[in-house]
Amino acid sequence: MTVASDIARAGEVLAQSMSSAFADMCFLDARPVPRATSDILPEIRAVIDALKPTSWRIELRLPASLQGRMREILFPDGAGVAGEEDAVLELLNVAAGAFLTGYFGRGQEIKLALPRLLYFGEACEGTELASFVLDVEGVLVGVWLYSVRYRY
Amino acid sequence: MPIGEVLIVDDSSTSRMIIQRCIEMTGVETSGFRFAENGLEALASLKEQGPVGVIVTDINMPKMDGQTFLRLLKADPEVAAIPTIVVSSIASGDADAEILGLGAAAVVKKPVSPAKLALALEALI
Question: What is the pLDDT of residues A33-47, one digit of tens each?
């Protein structure tokens, strides 16, 4: 069971990890802002599942314009749609790894699934633990952390 | 001292590109780059095109993950001696120890940087 203080800390660590990933990978400044997640334009939705030591899911929602900006930075020679989508997924992968390591510590066994995109209004399963908005150089990005109960 | 051809193994095209650029920025001389999207492709590349000077591989990949790739690599006498650097988004003491125990030369945490890769590559020279 996750207590309120743990959830608050998880949100903080996730926000820091996501901001660092934008900065380190894309050289984009990303800061948490007190905005509603409903202000996000969720054109691109990416998720990654944490499998150990806990069953969590991290979702990232951003507008296509930011994905395009990431592509321009990372692939100045030009890249197709696959390159754009992959950049978002890799950013999520890096942020998730940093988050889990930062939250649980280096001594914990951590396992991540492969990141993937959600399409056509696909619902994101789980119970919301935390959510926040990042301002990525003028573009709003939403991040959600869910607790997911898997059925085997 | 040149390190030869570098095989970069990662399912993410973004990550492959970042790793290549970071290696180029280290100033370490290479004779080129080869790419694979997973361990299976990497093994096929080594079999068909011959060994490389250094391998840089991700851990979490579809079809064949980095640990399995490393095990099979070190079990093949033709390619076992190729120094392998593992890159991972997860920093875990136990996981790093396991990867080094499988024969990796170094573990570098993502996001990679020229400085991190320079340290790992210079230890191989």
Answer: 999 988 888 899 999
